[in-house]
Amino acid sequence: MGEEDEVQKLKRIAAAAYDYENDPRWAEYWSNILIPPHMASRSDVVDHFKCKFYQRYIDPGLVVESMSLSGSSQSSRQAPPPTSSSTPANDQARHRSSGSSTRTSGSSGASRPNPPAMRWDRQTIQFSVNAWVFVLALLSILPIVPKNLSNRAYRLSFIGTGCSSLYSLYTLYGKPRAWNLQAVQVWLQSVIAAKDFIYFIYSLILLVSHLCLKFASIPILCRTLEHVVKFLRRNFSRSTLYRKYLEEPCVWVESNTTTLSILSSNAEVGLGFLLIISLFSWQRNIIQTFMYWQLLKLMYHAPVTAGYHQSVWSKIGRSVSPAIQRYAPFLNTLVTIVQRWWFR
């Protein structure tokens, strides 16, 4: 029971962190919900329907508790129930809206326009880079790939992730107002908790390392896979090729984003311990290990990654603490010092 509660907690965190504003399905979903204006302005009502939307289109395993609206007995009428997949429902809504606009304009004899060509906007550029990084990360982790090609793909995947994260930070937050210490500090304070900033630092730390830890490619694979699938479902849902070969895996990925985030968090924490073990080899790098553990500390506290990392560390604590108390109680002082630094 406790395990199920923890999974639902992680799913609720993922639902709260989802980018609803950039998902066109959310605008259509919200426009079909009829509730009084004074209720629509309440944040708890909006959050409830966001969870319902996330349960319907992203993760059916999310449990959403019913909410009683005071002063209105179920006056909120939601959108019609979904069909076997969310894409046909979207298509039907688009056909209805396009049909009504055609009747209003009176151009009954006009032929249906061809779909617009894909433009190289911000999302398309990000998709292209992330697809390239996904292929490179996959090559770097597969054991059948020759070692020299695998190592080169490993380096290039971190370069691509760093460029993609930096470009996303620039488009979302801009650049510092001035290139002085105070302006850069203000800009860093606004982006330091962003997921793109975390992965930019992650890529930078591992790129300058002499070690080639293929284990580090797992978070890159999970991140790029989510971005690629999200773009494909938004822009190619009507494509025959997509429906035939890609729809099923894409639906699975969108339904298991929580699982991918848990896998990524476990890999990131495990990589920290691998770097500690590497300190006993000739390839040791004390500064890099310290910087990576500072990044793990940031991941533990940043809202976008805190839920998953706190879950990983709580499991480690439940496994390690009894062993320390029983076999190595002299380590309690060291553990206390580390915990003070970690929670500071």
From TrEMBL:
Transmembrane segments: 127-146, 152-173, 197-221, 262-282
Gene Ontology CC terms, in alphabetical order: endoplasmic reticulum; membrane
Ranges for region Disordered: 69-117
Location in the cell: Membrane
Extent of Low complexity compositional bias: 69-89, 98-112
Pfam families tied to this protein: TMEM33_Pom33
Entry keyword Transmembrane: yes
Keywords tagged on the record: Membrane, Transmembrane, Transmembrane helix
GO biological process, alphabetically ordered: endoplasmic reticulum tubular network organization; membrane organization
Main localization category: membrane
Family annotation (InterPro entries): PER33/POM33_regulator, TMEM33/Pom33
Membrane topology per record: Multi-pass membrane protein
Domain of life according to the entry: Eukaryota
Family, per entry: Belongs to the PER33/POM33 family.
The protein's name in its UniProt record: Transmembrane protein 33 homolog
